[in-house]
Amino acid sequence: MLKVLKFGGSSLADANQFKKVAEIVKAEENRRYVVASAPGKRFSSDIKVTDMLLQCFRLSSEKKSIDEMFDKIVQRYNQIISDLELDMSLDDEFEKIKFAILNHVGSDYVASRGEYLNSKILAEYLGFPFIDAADGVFFFEDGKFDSEKTNKVLGDILSLHEYAVIPGFYGSMPNGTIKTFSRGGSDITGSVVARAVNAAIYENWTDVSGMLMADPKIVENPKPIDEITYTELRELSYMGASVFHEDAIYPARKAGIPINIRNTNRPEDKGTMIVSKSSSVNDTVITGVAGRKGFTAIFVEKDMMNSEVGFGRKVLEVIENHGICFEHLPSGIDTMSVVVSSKDIREIKGNITAELVKAVDPDSITLFENLALIAVVGRGMIRTEGTAMRVFTALANAHVNIRMIDQGSSELNIIIGIDEENYEKALKAIYSEFVKA
Q: Which three-class secondary structure state does DSSP give residue 13?
């Protein structure tokens, strides 16, 4: 039951955290491949090492001295090495990185060095071989991730090592230069490594004990999610509810590898298990509720719209021509709503309205701004009668007016549009309806 582990920046922020990580890795013999992040914050006002490296990059590009900031980076790593009582030096690496920054190497290279150096230390501390991600993680010329080449080459490399530490966040371009993942950095690398070695489980260790059913900033002490399917996670993470970036899901999902989100500071907690399919249903019916503010609904009305061939295409073509993605598309017989991000159309609302009038000659166009969307997600909803009624009743009892309803064909989610001013109240009401105190 081979396991791949990824540790986030907070899990590797200082020597004390390194010791916790080592205890976790050594606790199970089948925890064999470890993906490491750069040192994160040790306290709230601290600066992440990656941010310090990028600051050096900016200072150098402005022809300013990087000495003071770079010395802080060196001190940070040397403090970890000293506190772990390791017999190693990164002086040559520091010199090489500083030289590269001063000679205007690319920002991706600079940003990646936090993971690179931290992985060197962790490999030494664990007694594992260090495998540079640049040797086994690849990107195409256009910067897109080359998943199949990576899977083959990285799999071949790791097959030669029973244990290994691999830096997260980066790989290499065809010309050998360093390229970083744009989002979800080290999480993606962990998922990629898990697929390459055909792991039984991918453990993603961070500073929270898995996912919660609702935003703890809004709902007091929300219940943890023990098990969630990839599809449910996709729905919730789209609304910003995930501690695990959705881009990092794909490699593990493609290989059918479960992902277990765990807490480095509370290793006894079982965390959240992300699986392809689940035969169990939560006793709460829903898996989670999440939402976001900042949406606008473009409401188009025209008699006999349903009999006008190509009407929907013409509406969406106007949106597409401005490079805007639509979020949801609820419609009726003579009405069509296109929900978009408010910030995407803020400067071009007039242009879009005028172009829609020209394209489809509607009876009316109305823009409903300052909308919030809330997604109620759960595999249990499919087999449970009255779920939608409970959602709407909870909102009615909380005196929240519903502006939009959109239910996916899979019956896995119900999305409600409401005024932004009612967002927090609505989220609490829905959560309380399904999770009784």
A: coil
